[in-house]
Structure formats: C-alpha cells, structure tokens
Input
Amino acid sequence: MTDNLENAPIRQNEPKLIVRQASHAKIWSVWATLEGTASEEIFEGVSEEEALNWIIIDGQAWLEERRRRRNT
Output
C-alpha cells in the first residue's frame, strides 16, 4: 500500500487519519495511526474521493468518540 494523503487536524498524541490505496486491488482505505501503536483500518471504499469524504464527514466523529472513550 502507498500513503496518498495525511489529513492532520490533530492534537498531540492523537491518531492521524491516512488514506491508502491497496496495490493489489482498487480499494482505498482510511487508517488510523498513532506513533508507538499498530495502525488500524477504520474504513474501506472504492475510490480515493470516497475515503477522503469519509474523513471529512465521519472521521472527525470517529476521532471524537475515540477521545471520549480514552477520557472516561
């Protein structure tokens, strides 16, 4: 897989949401990465545009939910 975008409106110690394209198929994924931990695939789509839109629309809600769980 190759990294195509880093979307980084993030705070310190927050996951980065990265769009990657699979080299073996026409699949675009959004991965959450945090230094020192394994990457986690959180969305899979059929186009780069779909993956980017997921970050804009649902990715921020995913980050907020992750923050909420971590702070409870």
